[in-house]
Amino acid sequence: MNVRHLKAEPLEPRNPSKVNRYAWAPDILDRSNPFARILDLAPDAIIAVDIRKSIIFFNRGAEAAFGYSADEVRAKPLKLLFRGGLAGFHQGRIARLEASTDKAGAALERCELMGRRKDGSEFPAKISLSKIEFDGETVLSLMLQDVTSHAFTEERLRAALREKEVLLDEVHHRVKNNLQVITSLLGLQARSIKDSATRVKFDESRYRIQAMAILHEILDESPSLAEIDFADYIQRLVAHLVRSYGAIGRIRTRLRLDPLSCHRDVALPCGLIVNEVLSNALKYAFPGGKDGEVQVELRREPRGRVHLLIADNGIGLPRGCDWETSPTLGLRLVRTLARQIEGAMQVNSANGTAFSIVFRDGLRGGIR
Amino acid sequence: VRSEGRPADRILIVEDERITAADLEEVLKDLGYEVSAVISSGESAIREAERNPPDLVLMDIRGCCGNALTCRWFI
């Protein structure tokens, strides 16, 4: 049975000059002392050194971690156990620790460095260092944990996270492509329809799906998985709609967009609202091929709120049309989606039409 | 819409989603263009462009071939 406490030999009489003394160990580290036995059996490596950094206590955990027996390292320098000796320890901190007047052993330093085993192999170790005074003698104690498995687990977690991000990226790409295929299917179907009213319905459905596809296109390109550059989204959406309704050159677009981000769960319904309101304006606000202007404004408001304005200078909503009760699909969608994002909506039809909605950006734990 | 009496511009479509390609082809034809071919891979697109040079190639940068930018240099 190894004797892990390293009672000094030769143990010189207490010498206040502390010269020539090595491997002195206080009685409390004697194996017959129950405290020493508790330390001995602890699973973590526990090492004590005297003021000259010579090893005076080396428990079973330390034996397991380093491959040395307690006898082998008795009175040996501590630097034997670490890559680069004691250089890895922050010398300033050690000096501070040694100089501290805290006698209760509370003065503590923590560090991580590479332990070196008897066979030369190395392992990452987390170390807590404290100073204890025994009858005027200074003892430094090291509690040391082999964190190889932590490092391994961390690496595996990191790899799993990377894989998840790649997969999610692929999902966004697939969703975007699938939405594009749905759009194309509706396009192919629409072209075979002779009745123009029915055909228009197909086109409207197509634009709604394209509004969703544009969002996934941005997610596909963006490093963030949840946050959408909302100004970019609005810009692409408006350009797409003006093009789709053949309004380039006839309808001017005025965009005033604060750079801001939204959670995708807010951005999607919002994009669909823009799609409905703007489609409505492009279809009905400027009859007979009249010129005009549509305006979209995006303003950052305090406390994560966003103000979105979609306006046109056209003929306004038809007389008697109440946006809050109108049964048309477009306005029904606008009402439903506004409720979904808990948006406060106002419509002003005094001079053209202006839809204004205030909602939370959904970041920082807002609505989902 | 193309002006009459002038040969239509010829467009080569490179798209691996066949449905998307078919839709795109009809849209372009409606607009008066001629679609010279619909190809689903970058490599075949290079061969097709050499054999039958189009005026324009429509190709997704992040498409199936993964090397659309390289193809662009070849075509």
What is the topology?
The complex is a heterodimer of chains A (368) and B (75).
Chain A lengths: L33 H8 L3 E5 L5 E4 L1 H7 L3 H4 L17 H9 L8 E9 L5 E13 L2 E10 L1 H44 L4 H26 L5 E3 H15 L6 E7 L3 E3 H22 L6 E10 L3 E8 L16 H12 L3 E5 L4 E8 L8
Parallel strand pairs in A: 7-9
Antiparallel strand pairs in A: 1-2, 1-5, 3-4, 4-5, 6-8, 9-10, 10-12, 11-12
Helix pairs in contact in A: 5-6, 6-7, 6-8, 7-8, 8-9
Chain B lengths: L9 E5 L3 H13 L3 E6 L2 H10 L4 E4 L8 H7 L1
Parallel strand pairs in B: 1-2, 1-3
Quick description:
The complex is a heterodimer of chains A (368) and B (75). Chain A has 368 residues and is α+β, with helices and mostly antiparallel strands.
Report on this model:
The complex is a heterodimer of chains A (368) and B (75). Chain A is built from nine helices and twelve strands. Chain A has 368 residues and is of the alpha+beta class. A five-stranded antiparallel β-sheet of chain A has the order 2-1-5-4-3, sandwiched between helices. In chain A, strands 7-9-10-12-11 form a five-stranded mixed β-sheet, with helices on one face. A two-stranded antiparallel ribbon of chain A has the order 6-8. In chain A, helix 5 packs antiparallel against helix 6. The two termini of chain A are 64 Å apart. Chain B is an alpha/beta fold and 75 residues long. Chain B is built from three helices and three strands. Chain B has a three-stranded parallel β-sheet with strand order 2-1-3, sandwiched between helices. The longest helix of chain B has 13 residues, at 18-30. The radius of gyration of chain B is 12 Å and the shape is flat. Chain B starts with 9 loop residues before the first strand and ends with a helix. Chain A binds chain B through residues 173, 177, 180-181, 183-185, 187-188, 191, and chain B through 17, 19-20, 22-24, 26-27, 30, 62.
